[in-house]
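We treat protein structure as text, and this decision shapes the records that our systems exchange. The tokens are whole numbers drawn from a learned vocabulary of local backbone shapes. One such record is reproduced below, unchanged from the form in which we store it:
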Amino acid sequence: MKKTIGYLTERLLIQYYLIDSICRGLVGEEKMKDIFDELTRVMCIPVSLETEKYYEMSVSGEYAGIIDLITYNRFCRNIEFAQISGQNAELDDTDRVIISCKRDAMHAKYKIFEHRRSLTVDTVADILSEASAKGNICSMVTLAFMEYHGICISKDENSALKRIRAAAKWNCIFANLMGIAYDVKDKTGYYNNIFTIAKTSNMKEVFRNICEATAYTGECRISPTADILEKAFSVDIVNRNSYDRIFAGVVFSEVISAEDKEKLLLNKKAEEIVSLSGIPFDTKRSNGFNFDAVKVQETALKREDEIQRILYDLSPVLDGYSSLYQPLMVAANDSYVSDMYLEAIKAGFADRNKVIEVDASTLSAADLSGTKENFILRGLSETKKSHTVFLVKHCEEIAENGVQGLVKLLDYDNRRRFKLQDPAVSIDISDVLIILFASEINEDVRTIADECDVIWSASISREEKQNVIEKSFETRANLFGLENVKLEEEAKSYLLSLRTEQMIRLIDRALKKAAFDKEFTVSAKTLKSFDSEQGTARNRREFGYLGGVYHEEY
């Protein structure tokens, strides 16, 4: 037990000496004693005569004057001169511990503040923040402790906890202990990190002492991420006190397997590690998607059975069970119905999730391949949000060589072990949400549908068409400022014979003409003239994922 207390005591003293040297002249002696006591509690060290002795010796005599490397080196020269000259300069174990910890603390201070000796409240905050931003772990945890308690710095518990969590992931013992003491969220990760760091025989007692002091009885396991970091520290791939953001981006990824991380990181494959920096690493999540079901029920055409089917098929991902979700496809033989459901579902997700709309007709082979050009990876890299919904529309127009690529992406297991070609790693993108839409049912749609839960939407009825014509005409007339324009009954009858996409296109053209010619009625003759001029084929979209416009984000 004495050995473990000694290890933690050294961590305590180094941290206390650093804070003391930073705050000298800015914080009173009584406050510094409170800081020492709080550090003792956080470091899980029982209050004893030994710890009190360390404190008393630190604040009195020659040790109290050591506040930077200059005063530390001067003290060491005085000791050396006294020994050479035969004066009484015997050092006991307590002296040696204090001197060693002062040395480490003053070196840490120098790396943060260099030769600055006159520190003010403003410069302390600015310099610590700047060093933290550059990845200095010592400044990160020191600033976090000072922010949490409002020592020389404005009190900001939220900011402090963010720094604590970041430094704890980088295997900083002090950060993990602060996490246990201050973070009200699940503490298991902090204990697992310390358990992993302390797994060597000479450190196991340290972990047991921490669990005893904090009354923790849970079962701990080795953290794969912390284990890789410890291995990287041991062979000097990265530095324990310097947060490497590129390395961290890969090692903390929740979508790359531990085996692939080790293969890349411990073999020092620098180019491949850098190339992975463009891959999204935050796609894994523990909660379901947020969804407003009312938005889906507010569709123009009231089809209760189809709406309930949509909600039922989406329920696994809404409840957080992505592995049980079979991709949903809404297949209709009508573009108005397909677009209606797409807009309704998009509205349901858009408030609290990132939604990306992708046109299947624009997807190339690269957009569906195992490269960083894949439309899912590019979408995730853009949103940088785990709750990303992909709405793939116009599946009937997907390129012939793209059907199998899309089908492969719909398979949960293939997404869970998505094989990236360069670098050759497997990443987990299974938790993104893919919903598909088709406005025409052809062989490609049927092939894709084999991988989906499909809502085969009913054909649009005559009554529904009448409703579409009236609402579309009224809405578009208002947009053109033509509130008094009327649609002749014969024109309505003619429109009823057409597909909804044709109807809406002809209504738009007719209203444009009416606005230009200042007409007050739209006749069947006018509609027929436009129809014969333009034909009935839908214009194919020309810009794709790799072109000018590949999606809209909401």
